[in-house]
Amino acid sequence: MSLLDFARGPALQWAAVIFVIGMLWRTVGLLLMLRSRPLSKDRKSGLAGAGVKTMFSRFLLPKVFAKRVGFQFLLGWVWHVGFVLTLFFFQVHVLFFKGVFGFSWPALPNAVVLPVAAVTLGILLILLVRRMTNPMLRYISNFNDYSSVIVTLLPFVTGFATFTHIPALAYETLLALHFLSVALLLVWFPFSKLFHVITVLPSRYILGVKFWRRGVEA
Amino acid sequence: MTRKELTLGERMQARGVSRRAFLRYCATTASLLALPPAMAPRIAAALEAQRRPSVIWLSFQECTGCTESLTRSASPSIESMIFETISLDYHHTLQAAAGHQAEEAREIAMKENWGNYLVLVDGSIPTGNMGYSTTAGESNIETLKRVAEGAAAVISIGTCSSFGGIPYANPNPTGAVSVSDVVKDKPIVNIPGCPPIPAVMTSVLAHYLAFGSLPELDHLNRPMVFYGQNIHDRCYRRPFYERGQFAESFDDEGAKKGWCLYKLGCKGPTTYNACAVLKWNEGTSFPIESGHGCLGCSEPNFWDAGSFYSPLSTSTRLNAGTVALAGAVGVGVGAAAGVAARARQKKIKSAPAKAWTPTKAEAKAEEESQ
Amino acid sequence: MTEVITKQEREEAFAMFYGMAASIGELAEPAPEMTDEERVERAKEVFLKGIDNNVAVQLDACVHCGACAQACQFFLGTEDPKYTPIHKLDLLKKVYKRELSPMSWLNKFLTPDITADDLRDQVELVYDSCTMCGRCNMVCPSAINIGDMVALNRSAMAAAGLAPAELRYMRDGQEADGTIFGADEDLFNFRIQDIEQKLGFEIPIDKKGADVLLMTSGLDIHLFADATGGAIETLHHMGVDFTLASKTPGYEGANFGSLSGYDATKKKLTKDSTAAIEELGVKTVIVPECGHSYPALRFGAAEAVGRDVKFEVMTVSEYFGRAVMDGRLKLEKKDHPTPIALHDPCKVGRWGGVFDEPRAILKACGYDLHETESNKQYNFCCGGGAGNFLLPSADKLKRVGYRIKMGEIEATGAEELVVSCGSCRMNFEVGKVKAGDSMPVESLAAIIAAHLPQKDKAEGDRA
């Protein structure tokens, strides 16, 4: 079995299995945990609506924090969007999903996706360097933080190498490495902070409700 | 069997092949083999002077496609003439002899040329029940072992003998293996392809005849000059790939415009062969040019590397069923974890609160009460 | 307004009080003896009790982006990475990951357990360098409730016998006497009689069935009689059927069980107050200008007694602000030539939702309010909330916090600051002295009283 056969076949299959198991394990486990409910009267009504509002309002940065957090907030925004666009709307990736799920959706032209992916990769590198050099970030960072950034940017690096077919390695080796880097991302995802994909909106909802019952828009 | 010791030059003249045509063939061979032009006269001289070496062609689990490829051409070509330079002493399809006569011819050739003859093999070798494929009551694997023992080199013609090919494909009912799985102590050249390009076969033979050695090989024992680059890199449709213009089906606008066939499953990017350069039918066309993606037929395991029509970017083993099964397991484990956490939470909640320190007054009161 | 306490009296009292506050650490009982194992066990028990589904989801949503640091005045003022708010939750995260998270089966092998030394290092992080103001909650892209989880940390510290001596002293005192700073019933009665004399009318005490109960606090009894006096005068002016209570659970609004992290004390104090309030049968309770007393009673009463309570809880600014907004209280617009700034106390503002009411009052008084750049739910803490104004070990941090807050106030061009929280006021006063600033800091309740219309005009309103 060649490296590519391994990467396209068992590696990806097992990575996806681990990904799905891990994600559901953590999600279902969280859902089942006991929740305490406040007994005091709410100051405002419409808690669920306020929670949903916070889920979306936190996509924007309150003006008062713009000066200090604006840059990292913007970077965060751009790379997340870039990641989604590249993952789900690059022609070849659409084919991949069609292969897995049996249906597909329109892809974006390469002329759009490639620059987006390049910017995304660039930002991830900036964020990694920033995490290593900013004293505060370095202080709070742990293995989970570094590994998650690296594991996220590897598919971009290998993806670019594959698409541009860098001469250093054979195409099938590059493609295999790309598949393997994706497999690594899938395996790492549920066990790391990348899991925030599931928890970030519920977490916002929780604070939105908590504060709105006190009369504060969070 | 007659054994006239004529040189190739003499035989060519006898056949009416002009000296000019012969030299052109030598020049072409030199360029195909990526040798400097100065080597062309040397090839010519060597071929002209060469006595016909004995070649034994063994056919095992095969379809004769490789032989067809080698012999079937619109008009007698210079390539086909290469067989005039060798003494093809045994070949099921081409030899006139049959039965014991044929086997006898092989035995004689082996004895006379022991240690010097070439063995060409097409077809894979079954290792299961020997009854799957025998010749004159002898299993293929025995034949190969015995014949290869006295060979100067073994050349695997086609994907089956090179890598196992279609007989080797899952579930491999005959336990088929490649030549290199059986023969360990002889130089082996693999010329994979289903079938291989005729010029590639003849060029390797010409190299052997001219220099008495085998051409430079890659890690899969394939001649570097023909298998060093993938089809994708040499494909005339490559610009459409770069631009992201793909045919979505075999009859859409993109297909008509000759766009890239990646999405239709073309294996060009992972297939190392000279199809896009040498082409087929005397340089007329090759699969991609005629509108179909490359199947990757010259690569190991090409039959099991996913559908011919699913793009390279897709997984070969992953599907919604696997995902769903994993999902069920995940929900199960998660539910178990959640229930365990709940039980723990309830236990902690119901435990009497000891987690705060009594004040001095309370401590005293407690002391007094005891 | 009738002056219930002169400026000089206040300054003298303040100096005395400050001297007393500075020595309470030495007066505290020795910290409870405990082995390291016991400390860890108790802290973990508190952590685990506090981790519910909401906490778990929020802890799992953190990506260590570090934005919270940029909202925290203690980080901004020191640039010390250890003051990054989310770092203060590391122990809680560890316990969660190891013991309760859905993946605890795996994490047990990968996450080291917490140690008593971890807990000792944590003390500075959750007491000195955090006032649980919750400003970090507002910047967090995952909206993690860091403030409340620091409160949970304080509870764990207290359970592990590691609460700072000053807060232990305060908590022990309130556990024993029901009040703080020795503001016992005698002193309370003395102060009320004093105010009564100055205001010239009888203050109802322990009047069953009154509409409104006005609470106060040790801090106001000792120092900020203007706040209590202003509230009483305004209630009287409005003709509200109100009363004060003469027993500690009925008048003391502060809750040092809550600030120190002693959950049982917190619960006990709130429970006692709730019982006293329900016995009086009032409809509304006005908690004093004391930040944390508002959430402690407003949101804590039901939790303490395990059911919802019948009475409504409002803070001073909220009660009078609503009265102004719906026309029950008319204030006299006066000419104020210089702009004023407003400090939203964290516990009343960001944690209580009282924003519009104090602004309505200031508008009705004719003030030109200049908002600080960070205002309402984004407000900076005064720097010494959550009992920190009593911690000498946090002095440097308090100054840093004060500097940032005062910087924003000064930038507004305001020449006067109005506050509706006693401990914020304390911290501003101390900060001013240490920094050599001179911005006058006023109680909102006193300002209301100072803008009550002339009696004859008010008579008509009352009818």
Entry keywords:
heterotrimer; A: 218 residues; mainly alpha; B: alpha/beta; Rossmann fold; Cytochrome-c3 Hydrogenase, Chain A, domain 2; five-stranded parallel beta sheet; two-stranded antiparallel ribbon; 18 helices; 9 strands; 9% strand; NarG-like_sf (chain A); transmembrane (chain A); transmembrane helix (chain A); membrane (chain A); Nitrate reductase gamma subunit (chain A)
How would you characterize this protein structure?
The complex is a heterotrimer of chains A (218), B (370) and C (463). Chain A has one domain (3-32, 42-212): Fumarate Reductase Cytochrome B subunit, CATH 1.20.950. Chain A has 218 residues and is mostly helical. Chain A is globular. Chain A has helices at 3-32, 47-57, 66-89, 91-101, 110-133, 135-140, 143-164, 171-188, 196-212. Chain B is of the alpha/beta class and 370 residues long. Chain B folds into 2 domains: 8-226, NADH:ubiquinone oxidoreductase-like, 20kDa subunit (Rossmann fold); 231-304, Cytochrome-c3 Hydrogenase, Chain A, domain 2 (Irregular), CATH 4.10.480. In chain B, α2 crosses α3 (39-49). Chain C has 463 residues and is mainly alpha-helical. In chain C, 54% of the residues lie in helices and 5% in strands. Chain C is built from 25 helices and 7 strands. The radius of gyration of chain C is 22 Å and the shape is globular. The two termini of chain C are 21 Å apart. Residues 457-463 of chain C have low confidence and may be disordered. Chains in contact: A-B, A-C, B-C. The interface between A and B is large, with 47 and 46 residues.
Summarize the structure.
The complex is a heterotrimer of chains A (218), B (370) and C (463). Chain B is of the alpha/beta class and 370 residues long. Chain B contains 18 helices and 9 strands.
